[in-house]
Amino acid sequence: MSKDLNNISKFLSYVLRHQPEAINIRLDTDGWVDIDTLISQANLHGESLTRDLIEQVIKTNDKKRFTLSEDGLKIRAAQGHSTAQVEINYIKQIPPQYLYHGTATRFVDSIKQQGLIAGDRHYVHLSLDEKTATMVGQRHGKPVVVKIKAQLMNQLGYKFYLADNGVWLTNSVPSEFLAWD
């Protein structure tokens, strides 16, 4: 992704996940906003957006962070929300035996004590494979991959969801379900 598209992706992440009010837009409870409204409000707030640029970001974003509605009129962030405007009603899914969480070494002691918590976001984000989790962890420092006993958690009543972009979500992961390799 080019630098310009990367900057647009960061801007879209910011307004569609965390601060829609920064450009005076309102997301519905499923996170959707009309693309024309997004473009108009972004342009009013100094961010030059077009439908073509948005579509390029959606197509080229390797993390598949954004979803276009079936009719092509709306956009949302697939997951990662911290704004109270959004409460996506994900469908409960049965996870595989193990899922993975990428983090940095500086967070290991805290995670061992309190497990994985969502923090400012609505959910803890988990990956299907170790490679993806490692890439996530690298964004925060020296990476560490934590193995999650997801199927066991599910059997004990913990709920798991799968976002549009393949990221697994759960409310929290207590430390007894963490496996450190």
Characteristics of this structure?
globular, alpha+beta, 4-stranded antiparallel beta sheet, 3-stranded antiparallel beta sheet, 21% strand, 6 helices
Written description of the protein model:
The two termini are 34 Å apart. The protein has a four-stranded antiparallel sheet, with no helix packed on it. The model has no long low-confidence stretch (mean pLDDT 93). The protein has 181 residues and is of the alpha+beta class. The protein has six helices and twelve strands.
Can you give the helix content as a percent range?
25-40%
User: How many whole angstroms does the radius of gyration measure?
Assistant: 17 Å
- Give the overall silhouette: globular
| Average pLDDT figure | 93
Q: Indicate the structural class.
A: alpha+beta
Report the sheet-strand fraction: 15-25%
Strand order, main sheet: write it out: 4-9-10-7
Number of helices: 6
How far apart the termini lie comes to: 34 Å
Biggest beta sheet summary:
4 strands, antiparallel
Quick rundown:
By secondary structure, the protein is an alpha+beta fold. It has six helices and twelve strands.
Topology:
Layout: H1 3-18, E1 33-34, H2 35-44, H3 51-60, E2 66-68, E3 74-77, E4 92-93, E5 99-104, H4 108-114, E6 116-117, E7 124-126, H5 130-138, E8 143-148, H6 150-155, E9 160-162, E10 168-170, E11 172-173, E12 178-179
Antiparallel strand pairs: 1-3, 2-3, 4-9, 5-8, 6-11, 7-10, 8-12, 9-10
Helix pairs in contact: 1-3
